[in-house]
Fold 1-deoxy-D-xylulose 5-phosphate reductoisomerase.
Amino acid sequence: MAVKTVTILGSTGSVGTQTIDLLMAEPDLYRVNALIAGRNATLLAEQARALRPDVAVIADEAGYPALRDTLAGSGIRAEAGREAVIAVSAVPTDWTMAAITGTAGLEPTLAAARNGRAIALANKEALVSAGAVFLRAIADAGAMLLPVDSEHNAIFQSLADGNRASLEKIILTASGGPFRDASLAEMRDAPPERALKHPVWSMGAKISIDSATLFNKGLEVIEAARIFALAPDEIEVLVHPQSIIHGMVCYRDGSVLAQMGAPDMRIPIAHTLAWPARVATTSPRLDLAAAGQLSFFAPDPIRFPALRLAREALEGGEGASTVLNAANEIAVAAYLAKRIGFLDIATLVERVMQRLGAPPLADLAAVLALDAEARAITESELTTKFASRAA
Ligand SMILES: NC(=O)C1=CN([C@@H]2O[C@H](COP(=O)(O)OP(=O)(O)OC[C@H]3O[C@@H](n4cnc5c(N)ncnc54)[C@H](OP(=O)(O)O)[C@@H]3O)[C@@H](O)[C@H]2O)C=CC1
Ligand SMILES: CC(=O)[C@@H](O)[C@H](O)COP(=O)(O)O
Ligand SMILES: [Mn+2]
C-alpha cells in the first residue's frame, strides 16, 4: 500500500491527538507533512519530535520561541502566526484532518481543500458558517469531503450502498449531554465545571458545552443538511443515552440502516483515514450484551431551544447559520468565562439571530464579514443586556 501523506489542523486537541494515536499505531502507512496547533507549543513540539513532520506551526506567536527552541537541530521547521497556519495548510498532502475548533478553522480547511485531495472534516462550525461557499470551494477543487463527526460518519457509512435516491430520512442520535435529566432550575445555575462533564465523550471545551445546550446537535442538523443535501424535514434527532448507534438512514422500503460502535472517535477517524479501505484499530469492541438496552426518545424543546434555533437558521437562508454559529461561539466563551449563565447561551444566540436575520452570502469575504459582525453584536448584547450578571 502506498504511503499516505497527512496534515493535521488542530493536532493538540481531542480529535487531533486521537488522530495521532492512529498514525503512531501504523507508522509504515503514513508520513506526516505538517502539524498545526493553536497555543499548546509544548505538546506540539512533543508531537513533532515523535512524528517528524516537515513543519510544525503554532498559531499563537507567543508560543514560537518554545517551539523553535525545542525543535532546534531536529530538521523540523518551526513556524508561527495565522498566515503560516493558512500557508502550511495549503501545502499538498493526501489527507488533511480539519480539527481546529470554530470558524478559526474555516480558512485553513479551505486552503487544504484547494489541493483537491481528501478533507476529513471534524470542524463542523466551518461548514455551518460558510455553507454553500464551503461546499462550492470543495467541489471546485475536486476534493473529497469525508465526515469525521460520529453521526455524519455513521450516515456516510450507512449510505455506502449508493441508495441515496431511495432515502426517506436520516436520524442523528444525541447523548442528551450532562443535563439530559436536569431541571430548568438546575440548568440555570449550572457552573461550567458541571456542563463540561459529558456523560459519554471526552472532547474539547467548546463542543462539550455545545453538547450540553444541544447546540452541537443543532449544528449537526445543519451539517447533515449540507453534506448530504437534505431538506430540514428529512433530518430527525433522537436522544439515545448509550451513544452506541451514531446515525441511521431510513429507506423508502421501510429498511433502516444504522452504524454502531463503541463511543470512541478513533473509529470514525480511522474510517476516514483509510477510506475506502479499512484499517485495524485497538478501540474497544462493541459488547451489546453488556450494554443490555438501547433507548431512544425525542429531545425536550423547552429545556433545549438550540435545536429549534438551528432549524430556524437552516430554513432562514444562508447567512442565518453564519450568525447562529458566530453568536454561539461568543456565547460559549462568555459562559466558560462565567460572564453569563448556562441558559443565557441560547437566549443570546436567539437575540442576535433576530437582529441580523439571514443576509445573502456571495463568497468567503461575505461569510467572514458577517461572522465578524455577528460576533461584535453578540459582544455588545453581552455588555449591555447581560451587564448586571457580569458585574
Ligand atoms: N472532540 C470530539 O470528539 C469531536 C470534535 N468534533 C469537532 O472537531 C473540532 C475539534 O474539536 P476538539 O478536538 O474537541 O477541540 P479541542 O479544543 O480539543 O482542540 C482544538 C484544536 O484546535 C487548535 N486551535 C484552536 N484555535 C486555533 C487557531 N486559531 N489556529 C490553529 N489551531 C487552533 C487547538 O490548539 P491548542 O490546543 O494548541 O490551542 C487544538 O489543537 C471541533 O470543531 C468539534 O466540533 C466533532 C466531533 C467529535
Ligand atoms: C463524538 C461526536 O460526534 C460528538 O459530536 C458527540 O455527538 C457529542 O455528543 P452529543 O450527542 O451529546 O452532542
Ligand atoms: Mn457529533
Observations:
- The first strand starts at residue 4 and ends at 9.
- The chain is about 50% helix and 15% strand.
